[in-house]
Amino acid sequence: MAQLEIRNVTRRFGDFVAVDDISLGIEAGEFFTLLGPSGCGKTTILRMIAGFDLPDAGQILLDGKDLAGTPPEQRPVRTVFQNYALFPHMTVAQNIAFPLRMARIPQNEIHQRTGETLEHMRLTDKAEHYPRELSGGQQQRVALGRALVSRPRVLLLDEPLAALDAKLREEMQLELINLQRDVGITFIFVTHAQGEALALSHRIAVLRSGRIEQVDEPSRIYGFPRSRFVADFIGNINMLDAAVLETAHGHSRLAISGLGEITAPPVSGLTAGARGAFAIRPEQVRIGTRSEVTELKNHFPGEVRNLLYSGDVTVYKVQLVGGQMLEALLPNSAPGRAELFEVGDAVRVGWRHDAGVFLHE
What we know:
The protein is of the alpha+beta class. The chain contains nine helices and 20 strands. Strand 1 (4-13) and strand 2 form a beta hairpin.
């Protein structure tokens, strides 16, 4: 049995259905992420787990016990908010100790657990500082320490990295991974940032309009999306209109609109004539001269229409003979060379027979 079970939960706000008959199972010790665009229902789910909001239908069970009727302060669940919600008039130590004082824990135990948490969060030397005297990363560690000091069964994180700059955000991602591994409790993380979800999570639930599109490990969410929405929402991807010509053991043949036939990974459960899209990531597309690409099973001529140099890589937008635009990513690994091709260059693009995925309509 999963530690946390969400069974057929629905939440409405007037005529708007924020969460639409969702079911999820989250395992003990898992770093689980709810990912999706604004308004998809992810924060509403988090609030219902915390007890700040109640479902209109369905159940939320923790360790097999229905949480209905259990007020937020009595649930073994704590939340870290995007703005941290630290008390400005309290020191770091007082902020961390606050939940223990509210629970009327004996003073000697408060002192001991606060000290342990300060040490664990690397804040011992900041114990007497106030939040305004701390950096953004330190403030976040205080918020995490305050949530963890009461030893919850589940920690909820509502976009806690959103307010940080890019470099600090990356550092805090590593800290969160290490912290979750060290404390061993279940983290449920809400974000709309795809890269963040891929980097942090054991599993991800991708949400759209109050429903779950896909639940899977990050590598499968990225490499094997099950819908056009998931494919398009997670990272950059090329999508070409396609129809199934043949399905065989180990491969399939697809007809790409305006381009011709390609060989693709096997398509399960579909017969010839099924329509959809062939989706392939830019890093799976090789760009080069004719001799550099023609050994690949799928290759087509095109012209460079645009390029974006990003330091470590260059992304090329190539117009194919059928008029389709395809993105190809080329690492800038050759010393002293920033660009390999220019706008207007005739090139050839290609990809392996086992790259990409067919998405049924």
